[in-house]
Structure formats: C-alpha cells, structure tokens
Specification:
The complex is a heterodimer of chains A (386) and B (1016).
Chain A lengths: L4 E5 L3 H9 L8 E4 L7 E4 L1 H5 L8 H7 L4 E3 L3 H14 L7 E3 L4 E5 L4 H4 L2 H16 L4 E5 L2 H9 L6 E3 L5 H5 L12 H9 L5 H5 L3 H8 L2 H9 L15 E12 L2 H21 L6 E8 L4 E7 L8 H15 L6 E9 L19 H17 L11
Parallel strand pairs in A: 2-4, 7-8
Antiparallel strand pairs in A: 1-6, 1-7, 2-3, 5-6, 9-12, 10-11, 10-12
Helix pairs in contact in A: 11-12, 13-14
Chain B lengths: L22 H10 L4 E7 L5 H11 L2 E9 L4 E6 L2 H16 L5 H4 L7 E5 L2 H7 L4 E6 L5 H11 L2 E4 L11 H12 L21 H7 L4 H12 L23 H15 L5 H17 L2 H11 L6 E3 L6 H6 L28 E5 L3 H12 L4 E9 L2 H11 L4 H11 L8 H6 L12 H6 L13 H11 L3 E13 L10 E3 L5 E3 L3 H6 L4 E7 H17 L14 H9 L11 H10 L4 H10 L5 H11 L25 H12 L3 H13 L2 H17 L4 H12 L8 H20 L1 H11 L6 H10 L3 E3 L11 E3 L2 E3 L10 H14 L5 H7 L6 H10 L11 H14 L26 H12 L7 H4 L1 H4 L19 E15 L5 E8 L4 E6 L1 H7 L8 E11 L2 E12 L4
Parallel strand pairs in B: 1-2, 4-5, 5-6, 8-13, 14-16, 19-21
Antiparallel strand pairs in B: 2-3, 3-4, 7-8, 9-10, 10-13, 11-12, 15-16, 17-18, 17-20, 18-19, 20-21
Helix pairs in contact in B: 1-2, 15-16, 15-19, 21-30, 21-31, 22-30, 24-30, 26-27, 30-31, 31-32, 35-36, 35-37
The chains are: A alpha+beta (386), B alpha/beta (1016).
Chain lengths: 386, 1016
C-alpha cells in the first residue's frame, strides 16, 4: 500500500499565534521575548525576519538591527497549548498524528482514501480547516514518507500544498540544494560544498563505494536521504504527565546562595502542586540556562519518600544543581521538572514501638500547607540560618 | 610622642593580586594615622621598593624594608635591619623564585643579627630560634590566644601585626575582586581562606591597642623592632657593568679602540675630531662610563646589522666604536644631551637589532658575562582599562559576548578620572571617585544604542579601581642589566614565563636604584633591510654592505621620500608621516630628521606653521636669542635639545635645570610643571622677555608632553629610513617581500599587497614547489609565502620545506601526501588545496577533485597508527568527475586561507552591491581633480586612528584605498557620532564628502558613509 504522509508546518509559529491573539501586531516587525535587559528572541514574524532578526538572537542585537521592531512578552504556555490543539484537531482524520516542533506535525493518512477521498484533497481540507477554525496558514507537504513530505513543505508557500507523486521523489529532490534535506547539518553541507556537491541530485548520483571513500560510514545514510528513502513511521503523540516549574531570573545571577534561594522557591511551587494532586515524583530533571545561551541539565532518580516535603525535595534538587553548575557565567533560567508521578504509598507502622517515619516532617509540611491554603502562599516562608 | 605600635606586615599592590593600594596611598594613610615608621612586606618580592622609599620620603615616614616569604608549607615576614640584611633577604627571595627545592630555614644564614623574622608557624620559629631574632606574629582574631600560648611554650617573644592588605575598609570589595580574578572564581564561590579578612586594613595605633589589651608587649615589640631597623633608602649607588675581570682602568683600551675607529670612519683625524674626542673621553672617564661603552661596543660588535639610537647617538665615541652610524660632527649633534657634568640621572644607549636575532644575542651574552651577573629588566603588567572591565565582568558571570560588546565600546581610554579632574571637584584622591564611570560612559556615542544595565555600573565602578594595579611581571622587551658581581645582591631575581632571569624592578625603579640598563631592542625594519639585502645579493649578485652604505644623497630615494610613497619604509610609513612628507615635498636627510621628530601627538598646530614657513611664508623668531638655536627648524621647537637650549637662553636656566624641565614636561608631571612654569616665567622676566613671548614659548614647550625625541635619535632613525627607502626605490620586489614577511609594518599584509600592485609588481599565489615559508621577491614579482596560509601548522610547513629540500620538487598531489605521510595533517593539506598552492602539481584535477583526493587519501589511513589498513597495498583512489568551483567560491577560499582575496581587490567583491547605488564613485587617483567639490568614492579601510579634539570630542582619521590609490579621510565629530558604529575594517564603504587640499595634498572630509558587504 502506498503511504501518504502529510507534513504540516506553520511558519513563524509563535509570532503567528501571537498575531492571532493581537491582530494589531501584524502591521510591523514583531519579536517575542521575555522582558528583561538580556533576553533572547523566541519568535519573529516575517517582517522582522526580513530585517535579519532570527530566533535565539539576543534581543539587544535584534533592536540594533531594526529600530522600529515591536517587542512583546512571549507566552510559551499559550503557544504550547495551541500546538496541542492543532495536533488534536487532526485526530479525526487519522489516529497517527505526530506533533513535532511547535507548529508542525506529521499525519499519516495512508489508507483513508475510501473514507475521506484522495490524499491531496484531504490535505487541502485539513489546511482549510486549520485556517477556518484557528486562522493559521500552514505549508503542507504530502509524500510517501516523512522525509520527502518535510522537503516538499519547505518548497511551498504558506496556505499551499506540495504533493510529490509516489515514484517521483528523486526527480523532485534532484535540483534542490543539499541543505534542504533534514539530517544534513552545517558541517556536512560545508564538507559537501568542499567537493562542489551542492545539489541533492548530484549527491544521489554517487555510488556507495565512491562516496564512502570520503564520508566513511555516513555515506550510506547520505545516499539514502538524497534518494528520498525514509521508512520511519509516524507515531501518535502521547503526553507524559509531569510538573514543570520554569523561572527566568529577574537579573542574571551567579551567586550560589541566591541561586539556591531561587531553586527553593521553585521547589515550593512544585511541591505545592505535587501535594495538591497527591502525587509522588519518580524522576527529577533540572536544567540551567546560562546568560550566554549555553545550558546544562541533569536527571536524577528520586527515592520514594513517605512525604513529599519541600525540604526533602530540595535536598535532591541541590545535589543535582551542584552537579551541573560549574561555569563562571551567570544563570538566566532555571527549569525544574518532576515526572513519573505516582500515588504516594504510605506504609503505616505495624507495631506501636516502630517509628512512624517522617511523621514530624509530614506534620510540619501539612501545617505549612494548611496555613498557605487559608492565608495565601506568602504568609509563611522558610528561613535559612547562616 | 613615641607611638605604641608600628605596622610591620603590610602588603601593597605589589603583592600581586592580593594587596590593592599603592605604596603612596599606604604611606599617606600611615602618616594620617600618626605613624612615624611603616614596613612594606610584599609577598616574595621587593617589586615596589623604590617607589615605597620615594613615597615614604614624600609622606615623611621612615621606611622599613621587608618581605613576606611564602611557600606552600610556611610563611614568614622577614625584615631587614641593615644593608647586609637587605642583601641577604634579596638573595633569599631570589632563591624562593629560582629554586624548586627552596626551603626557608636552609636559605637563612646560620647566625645573623641583620634580619628579624615574624611568623605564625611554630615549627619554623622553633627551627630559627637562636639563629635569627624571631617573633611570633599575632594577628587579631579568635586564634590569637592559641598563638600566645604557643609562643610562650617555644620561648619566643610576640609581635602584633594586622597583616594589612588594604589601606581602608572600603577597599575590601576590591581585594575580594582581585582574589576572585586570581583564583578564577566568582565572588559567591570565594572561600574564606581565599581572601584576607575584612578587617585587614591599616588601622591606627589606638585601634590596634584596643585589640591587644591583654598583651601590650606584642605592641611594644613592634616599636622595638622598627627602631632597630637602619636600612637607609639612599643606599643605592650607580652600578656599572665591568668589561674585563681586571681591577685597573680600561680607559687606555677605550682610547685605542676610538683611534682605530677614526681610521675606519674618517680615514684621518683632524683638530675638530681630536677636540671633541678629548672632551668626550674626559667626561666618560670622570663619570665612570668607560666600561659601559666598552661593554656596549662589545655587544653591538657581535651582530653586523644594528642601529644605535637615543641620546647616545650624539657621542663621537659611540660613532667611532661602531655603536651608532650617524656622524655627530657632520650633523651637529650635541654630546651634552647624552653626558653632561650636571646630569644627575643615568643616560643609556639604546641599540636595535633585527627582531629575530635578539634571542641568539642574549644567549651569547649570558654565556660571555655569566648568568649571575646579567638579568633582564622586568615589566610590571597592570590592568588596562579594557582588561579590568573584562576581568571584573567575568567575576560577575557576564557572558563573553556581552563583555566584548561593552569593552569594544569603551575603547582604550582610562576609566579613571585624572587627579586634576578630581581636584577640581575638591575630592580626596585616596577616596573612591564620587562619580560612577558608567554614568560618564553612557553618554558617549558608542553607547547610544547600548544601555549599561545593572550590574554593569557596578562592574565598571569596580573595574575603574582595578585599573593600573599590577597583575604580574614579564620580561622587558630589551633592557638588560649587567653588574660586576651578582645581580641578586642588588635586587631579587626571578624566572619569567619565557624562562629568562628578570629583576623584580621595572626600568624606572632600576634606574632609581642606580642599575645602568642597556636597551637591546628588536626591530623588524632592520630584519627587513637585512632580508632585502640578502635577496638582492641572491637575485642580482650585487652585494650591499649595511654599515657603509649611505643612500642619503641618492636622488631616486630622495624623490620617493618627498612624494610620501613610503609604505613599508621604516618610520616614514604611517598615514600622518606620509602626509607630512608629501605636504613638505622634501626628501633630503635634514628635513627627514625634522619630520621624524616633529610628528608627535601634541605638536599638530606647529606642524602647520612649519609647513607654511617651509613653503616660503616669512616669519620672525620668537625672540632674538632664539634665532640661532631654531634657525634650522624655521623657528619651531622640534627636538628635545631645543627645549633645553631655549630655557637656558630665555630664562637663564642652568643645563641641569633646563634638562629637568624637559623631563617634567615629557612625563606630564602635573604639580612639577606648574612649579617649573613659575620658575621659567620668573627667569624670563628677569632677562626682560615680554610675557607674550614667554606664553608662546611655553605653549611650544607643552607640545613635548607625552613623547618627543632628541636630534641624535631622530638622525639615527632617519638613516635607517633612508636605507629602507633606497631598497624600496631600487629593489621594490625584494623590499616589499621582506616587509610582508617580517610582519613588522604599520599596515596589514593585505595593505602591502595592494601597495605592491600599485607599484606595478605582480603578486603570485602560493605554490607548493615555488613558495618559501616567507614571501619572496625579485624581477617585478612577489611570491606569496606558505606562512601566509592561515591555520597551516608550523610542523606541516617545516615538513614541506624539509621534504622539498631532501627529495626535490613534488610532482603530484598523491606523491606529496605519500612523502609527507604522518607529518602533514588532513586539515593542512585541505588548506593548501583551497589556497591553490597545489594547482601546479594537480595535473588535470580541478580543486574539488584535489580536495576529494586528499580526503579519500586520509580516510584510507588508519587514524590510530597512520598506516594503511589494506592487506595487499592501497587500492587506487577513484576520483569522480566534479565540476570546478565558481570564481566566487575560489575568492571565498582565498579569503578563508590567506585572510584577504589575492586575485582581486575586495572592492570588486562588493561590486554587485555598489551597482545598486544610482551613482558611480570617483577613482581615488582622480581625487585631486575634485578639490573643493563633494564626491562619492568607494573605499576599503586600511588603517584607522581615533583622536580627541581640543574640545574633548571624539573623531577619527581613516585611511582607505581603492584599486587606483590610497587616500586619507577624516570623520569629524558629527559624522563620527553618526557612523562610528558602522565603521570596521571588514567591509567596503561608499563615502560621500568634500575633497580638501592642504599644501597640494588632497584628502576627504567625510559627511556620509555607507557600509557595503562583500558578495561571497
């Protein structure tokens, strides 16, 4: 059976979603970034892109490149929610909808012809539906595999479909530049350019033996993707329950004590959520993002505590933090994520003389939580003795 | 009244990266706190001792000499009681720095009363007790009781100190910053033991007494120790090197060498020579300089190419001994500027050698004079404005990219306000500055679009205090001291990062201490001349003798200098100098000497006057008594001697007094200048000179601030300039190749390549068989050297040259790879291919195919062993049919491998962008035809110089070039403010502005600049 894979990609997704929410922003170059003197560009619209502004660029540089740029606070949670909404929206036409990067997804519509009609018609219908329901324009690629559908989407304008007939993949890919292929990064593209191999067709013409003389083991993979061969399946997206607390510091911070204070605030927030949902975390992931854009993260398996108390959580977080915080550069963002959530299994003591482990800690945490519930989170806080 | 306590453990900022205050500040603070004595005990050194003596004398305090000798195992403060004690301590510090097995107890003499030791280490005290007078050092803190008990147990007396690391408590954050920089930590991660405690400042006697109510003897002992120290600060006397190990006088030897020199230099003697020689020899003998001259003559005699310069070039003896090459009699050079009965300071002779011969020369000298007798002068490296911001910002965790953005905008100017500016606001000079440097900087045009948000104001404020604090010491570029016995008896010696022995004093302190320094400096232009002479000999067979070749009267050379076509010519190639030469239109020796001296920062307005008078404008001398003195320089003060002679003629100054005035002006010593000005005005008034003339002359005097030259120095350099100009005029290819190879010019290699093209020379690309490591020239062609290839490893380059010498020329790419197997890396081979160096041996292969061949050849090797993996020999490499690179790609590769496009001018790469403009630019060669008109012109930047106007506004002079000529431009303050952020050295520019002419030389006053990228 011929596979039909749709790749849908909404260009400048964050900016498009933001413009949807606030249409007045459409008229001028727009940049989405967290407020603060040293924030990084998280999203740009087409007009800003024309001025040379790119995602990941320091906001100060973006402002220098384009003085009339509008800067708005980015709302990543909203954008993620929109992305999930899009993914869910296409579940009616296929159970296999794979949400990729924000604003893009693969939909496997193989074998749906008798239900919904021809593949291109269905893809166009999906795009129209996206435009009609959500007001977003997407580029659509339709091909027999994920790789070619991605390249096809790249070759068309937003609101349009690029359909590659099965069997014509090689002809389609042949004149395109090699860096259009997903899987060919800057290094490989530059190496290919060193041999004046600039088009996908030129690359595909090589014999495996010939190419392996200079590319070694990766020659086979290069040839495969240059010929548009991709057998990878579309997997339905599955949401993993987790609690994530992210914090962008008001000022880049390098003082370990102040950073630990910020972490403790996050622990309190996460602990509150965990206890509210009566969950115990199995894995902690901590990510720190430095002011120069570099980042480090670590994962730590947590021991099953009897009590999910802030103090016990913080002990684990602190160990993880000290493991990854080594550079002499200030930290800008801290992300703490608890996953593998489970019900806390509380074992009561069998005998009276047996210690009720953690009962004091639990009582204290419960007392704190009840006070906060009644009078607000700020009513009481932990202090640290020097 | 006798004090109750004296500080015996004090660190200045010469305790590198620990102390924060200068000896001056510490002495002033000590005086303010009522102390009569103060010890300076820097860690393992006497780095700032002479400055301390001077500061103590100014503050009226008795200095005590000491040092904290610190090793990983122990630490002790050692104080020198006597002169002998100073010498022992100097030797101990030398051993601490030079011996790996240093042990403090072993380094101390068996028995001495010349030293006092203070230490907290009970083990050390036990060992030294009985050999040296020992005290247990008690520093206020929770551990003092334990130390008191230990001292009692050992049986040594106690002495209180505060282990001072800073003058006032406000300096503690600066101390922590220094420690964090030193240890590569942040302030937050600095452990308590990494820095001194917060109360280690220079406390008053009363404050210290309050800390030791239970132990008054610890305080009293400090006074006892201080009173027993008798190290006179004026112990230092002049120390000359010794030529031979004889006790007798070497004057006879000097005279005989001079007599021999007369024969070589003049052929026969005359009365004028005899009179001058007798006068000089008498002065040299009376001042004790006989051995000094013999030693310098011995040193220069070891190399054929050198240039003696400085005031020493005024000496006939130097000329006769071959130290200098300018005839002082013919050029009327005054010996008095070098040696004079009234001169108190030490004159020195500076000698330049080709830069690449200097290290070999030093090795020879070490072997000849002995390692113990000779050492280099050191440099005290201080935090510069940008480095201090960068280091402070790192401690605050700022990202590297942001630090670069800020430091780039800050420029190179000091972050600190001058003492004059602070005095105007009536601020205490020892207190931190009341205005934040960041506030001053945020108003500068460079920060127009860049806000200095927190924590930058805090960083810049701390960085401004960090500025000028010594960070480490390094080897001075050429100053050496040679003493008759051993250097470490005079000053501690240590080993520099380069591995040579250096003294702990920089040149000023060495001079104050009486150590006569000999400056042996590296000069790239001398190497240029040497290489060009060698290339000429090789190409044409014409030998040129450097010492005896005198091109001063050569018409072609004079013409070249008068046109200002002097790119690459020593000392005459800077834009300002070329413009001056062209405006003056004079190429003779006398005028060149004037030009090389008058071109100094503060003399701009006098240069214009000079040019007007040179071109015939009538003028009257400022005063009749100056007419003769300034007759050769059109009534303008040009040389340092002019200042001295004018002061003597107008104000009746003695020679010594006038020379001191010249020095004070040169060093911009604020308060002393006012004092000398008053004396000068008084002297002039007594001689009846009218105040207007006094004012004008003083105005000219101040143009000598910063740096200025004496005539002998300028004449020596002018002779080298003539020699290089001669080579440029007669052997252009050889000369320009030598200029680029020695990389010592004012301009980049690319600028010289352009100059070569303008001179009609063909520049050839690098070639694996034809190129030497350096550029080579001959027969109107220059071949690019392999060293120019950026990223090519030295080992690879050496392997190529060696293999070519041993096995002959390479015949194919594969043969090259086989012959250099294991010695040439793939990255090196790819660079060679991309630059086109392999084209000549590639046969029918194009460059992509060469690159394929190289990559495949290296892939075929086992990366672990570098041997081939195939069992039955290597399989032949199949090369696919690949299309050749486009011309644009080849240019991009040239840019990548050589740093500049070789086959075309970069402006041609920007041509597609230029075509978008609706107008064409004027060629630079035609600029002179548009004087008084506004034009548009394309330009590629060559060099730039930012200056400040008299109103304190910033502006910049830029030198641009196009395919036809090089041209000068000025961005005055308004255009500079507008375009400074767009100006860099990597883009083409379309400039719009007014063509102006001065003395027949056209330049562009820019009104608008548009940056144009290259199309690659």
């Amino acid at each position: 059976m011929t596979r039909n894979i749709v790749y849908m990609q909404i260009p400048d997704f964050y900016a498009s979603v933001e413009e949807l929410r606030r249409p007045e922003l459409k008229k001028a170059p727009l940049v989405l970034a967290r407020p603060g003197p040293r924030s990084v560009v998280q999203g740009v619209n087409g007009q800003a892109a024309k001025e040379g502004v790119r995602e990941g660029m320091p906001l100060s540089l973006a402002l220098r490149l384009c003085r009339r740029i509008q800067v708005r606070d980015s709302d990543v949670y909203h954008y993620r929610a929109k992305h999930l909404e899009i993914v869910r929206q296409f579940e009616w036409c296929s159970p296999l909808v794979e949400g990729g990067l924000p604003g893009s997804c693969f939909i496997d519509i193989s074998g749906t012809g008798r239900l919904f009609g021809a593949g291109p018609d269905l893809a166009c219908r999906m795009e129209r539906e996206l435009w009609g329901k959500m007001g977003l324009r997407a580029r659509i690629g339709l091909a027999s595999n994920k790789l070619v559908s991605q390249v096809a989407a790249r070759c068309t304008a937003p609101g349009d479909l690029s359909f590659i007939f099965p069997g014509s993949e090689k002809t389609f890919l042949s004149p395109l530049p090699v860096d259009y292929l997903p899987g060919i990064g800057e290094v490989t593209a530059s190496k290919l350019a060193g041999f004046n191999i600039l088009s996908i067709g030129r690359l595909a013409d090589f014999s495996p033996d010939m190419l392996s003389a200079v590319f070694g083991r990766s020659a086979e993979r290069l040839l495969r993707i240059a010929k548009g061969m991709d057998t990878s399946a579309v997997f339905a997206s599955k949401e993993i329950p987790r609690i994530c607390v992210s914090k962008i510091l008001t000022r880049d911070e390098i003082d370990p004590q102040r950073l630990e204070s910020a972490l403790f605030e996050q622990v309190e927030e996460a602990g509150w959520e965990l206890r509210r949902h009566n969950r115990r975390p199995g894995v902690l992931r901590l990510e720190i993002r430095y002011a120069d854009g570099m980042w480090a993260d670590t994962k730590r398996r947590l021991t099953p505590w009897d009590v999910v108390s802030d103090r016990s959580l913080f002990q684990s977080v602190l160990v993880a933090f000290r493991r990854i915080f080594h550079r002499r550069v200030a930290v800008r963002r801290l992300v703490m994520e608890f996953s593998q959530l489970a019900m806390p299994g509380l074992q009561l003591p069998l005998f009276t003389w047996e210690n009720n482990r953690g009962s004091k800690e639990r009582d204290l945490q419960e007392a704190l939580d009840s006070m906060r519930k009644k009078f607000g989170k700020k009513i009481i806080s932990w202090a640290r003795l020097a | 009244m006798d004090p109750d306590f004296i500080h015996l453990h004090v660190h200045s900022f010469y305790s590198m990266m620990q102390g924060v205050n200068s000896p001056e500040v510490l002495c002033r603070q000590a005086k303010r706190a009522g102390f009569s004595h103060l010890a300076l005990t820097d860690t393992n050194g006497f780095y700032g001792l002479l400055n301390f003596f001077e500061a103590a004398a100014t503050a009226g305090i008795s200095p005590i000499v000491g040092a904290q000798v610190k090793t990983p195992e122990t630490s002790a403060v050692i104080i020198a009681r006597t002169l002998r004690g100073y010498e022992i301590l100097s030797e101990i510090i030398t051993r601490r720095h030079t011996r790996k097995d240093f042990c403090l107890p072993r380094s101390l003499p068996e028995k001495t009363s010349d030293l006092v030791v203070l230490s907290e280490d009970p083990q050390l005290l036990k060992t030294l007790r009985g050999r040296v007078e020992c005290f247990c050092e008690i520093v206020p803190g929770p551990w003092e009781r334990k130390l008191l008990r230990t001292a009692h147990e050992i049986g040594v007396e106690v002495a209180a100190t505060n282990a001072v690391h800073f003058a006032a408590k406000d300096d503690y954050p600066l101390h922590r910053l220094l420690r964090a920089i030193e240890l590569n930590k942040t302030l937050g991660s600095l452990a308590p033991e990494d820095s001194a405690q917060s109360d280690r400042w220079l406390k008053s006697s009363r404050e210290m007494s309050a800390k030791f109510p239970h132990c008054p003897e610890a305080l009293a002992n400090t006074v006892k120790i201080a009173k027993g120290c008798h190290t006179p600060p004026n112990r230092f006397h002049t120390v000359f090197p010794k030529y031979l190990e004889t006790d007798g006088d070497n004057l006879g030897l000097l005279v005989s060498k001079c007599r021999k020199g007369i024969g070589v230099r003049y052929g026969k003697t005359c009365q004028k020579i005899e009179d001058r020689l007798a006068e000089e020899l008498e002065l040299i003998r009376s001042k004790g300089f006989v051995d000094y001259f013999l030693v310098v003559a011995d040193i220069v005699g070891r190399r054929t190419i050198h240039c003696g310069r400085g005031s020493g070039a005024a000496s006939l003896v130097s000329y006769l001994l071959g130290i200098t090459h300018v005839d002082p009699l013919a050029h009327n050079l005054l010996f008095g500027r070098f040696l004079n009965p009234q001169r108190k300071d030490l004159p020195d002779i500076d000698v330049d050698f080709p830069w690449d011969e200097r290290d070999g020369l030093f090795d020879e000298l070490r072997a000849h004079y002995g390692n113990r007798k000779m050492a280099f002068i050191s440099n005290h490296n201080t935090f510069g404005p940008r480095a201090s911001v960068r280091e402070a910002a790192k401690v605050y965790g700022m990202p590297a990219s942001e630090i670069k953005e800020v430091t780039r905008r800050l420029g190179y100017r000091s972050l600190q306000e001058t003492p004059e500016q602070r005095k105007e606001r009536r601020e205490d000079l020892d207190a931190p500055c009341s205005t934040l440097p960041a506030t001053r900087y945020s108003t500068r045009p460079q920060f127009h679009d860049f806000h200095l948000d927190p924590p930058w104001p805090e960083i810049i404020a701390l960085a401004s205090r960090l500025e000028s604090i010594p960070r480490n010491i390094s080897t001075h570029c050429g100053g050496v001291v040679i003493v008759p016995d051993r250097v470490s008896g005079y000053v501690p010696v240590q080993v520099s990062a380069k591995g040579v022995r250096i003294i702990q004093w920089e040149k000023d302190q060495a001079e104050k201490a009486g150590l006569v320094k000999i400056d042996l400096l590296g000069n790239r232009s001398l190497a240029v001349i040497r290489d060009a002479i060698e290339a000429v000999r090789k190409n044409t067979g014409t030998p040129i003798d450097y010492a005896n070749f005198n091109p001063v009267e050569d018409p072609k050379t004079q013409k070249l200098i008068s046109r200002g076509d002097t790119m690459g010519v020593f000392y005459l190639e800077s834009p300002a100098m070329r413009l001056l030469q062209a405006k003056a239109g004079k190429g003779d020796f006398e005028h060149t000497v004037i030009h090389s001296s008058i071109i100094r920062p503060a003399a701009n307005r006098f240069i214009r006057q000079y040019l007007e008078r040179l071109h015939g404008q009538p003028y009257k001398p400022l005063h009749p008594s100056l007419e003769k003195i300034l007759s050769r320089s059109y009534g303008i003060l040009v040389y340092q001697e002019d200042v001295v002679q004018c002061a003597m003629a107008l104000a009746g100054f003695s020679w010594g007094e006038a020379d001191s005035l010249r020095k004070v002006i040169s060093k911009k010593s604020g308060e002393q200048i006012y004092d000398y000005k008053a004396r000068f005005e008084k002297g002039c008034a007594q001689k009846g000179v009218c105040p207007e003339v006094v004012e004008k002359v003083w105005d000219m005097f101040t143009s000598f601030a910063g740096y200025s030259f004496c005539k002998p120095h300028s004449a020596s350099y002018a002779l080298v300039s003539f020699k290089s100009a001669y080579l440029k005029a007669h052997h252009p290819a050889e000369f320009m190749a030598a200029v680029i190879s020695n990389a010592g010019g004012y301009y980049s290699a690319f600028a010289y390549i352009s100059e070569c093209r303008r001179m009609g020379l063909e520049v050839l690309r690098p070639d694996i068989n034809q190129s030497d490591p350096d550029f080579t020239g001959g027969a109107k062609r220059i071949r690019t050297g392999l060293k120019q290839l950026q990223g090519l490893r030295r080992s690879g380059l050496e392997a190529i040259v060696e293999q070519r010498r041993k096995g002959g020329l390479f015949v194919s790419v594969e043969e090259l790879l086989n012959r250099l197997r294991g010695r040439l890396l793939a990255a090196d081979a790819l660079i060679l291919a991309k630059s086109g160096a392999l084209d000549s041996i590639a046969g029918s292969l194009n460059r992509p195919q060469i690159l394929w061949l190289i990559q495949a050849w290296f892939n075929r090797l086992n990366p672990e062993t570098g041997t081939q993996t195939a069992l039955f020999g290597p399989r032949p490499i199949k090369i696919p049919n690949l299309a050749d690179f486009s011309p644009q790609t080849k240019l991009a590769h040239e840019l990548q491998t050589m740093g500049f496009p070789l086959s075309v001018h970069p402006l041609e790469l920007a041509e597609p962008h230029f075509r978008r403009f609706p107008y064409n630019g004027v060629p630079a060669s035609d600029m002179a035809r548009y004087i008084g008109k506004k034009i548009r012109i394309k330009g590629w930047p060559i060099t730039r110089k930012e200056v400040t106007t008299r109103q304190g506004e910033e502006m910049e002079f830029f030198t641009f070039e196009d395919q036809t000529a090089i041209f000068e431009t000025a961005f005055f303050p308004q255009p500079f403010k507008r375009f400074c952020r767009d100006l860099d050295m990597n883009h083409a520019y379309l400039l719009y502005g007014l063509v102006e002419s001065e003395f027949g030389v056209a330049s562009l006053t820019v009104e608008h600049a548009c940056r144009v990228p290259l199309c690659l």
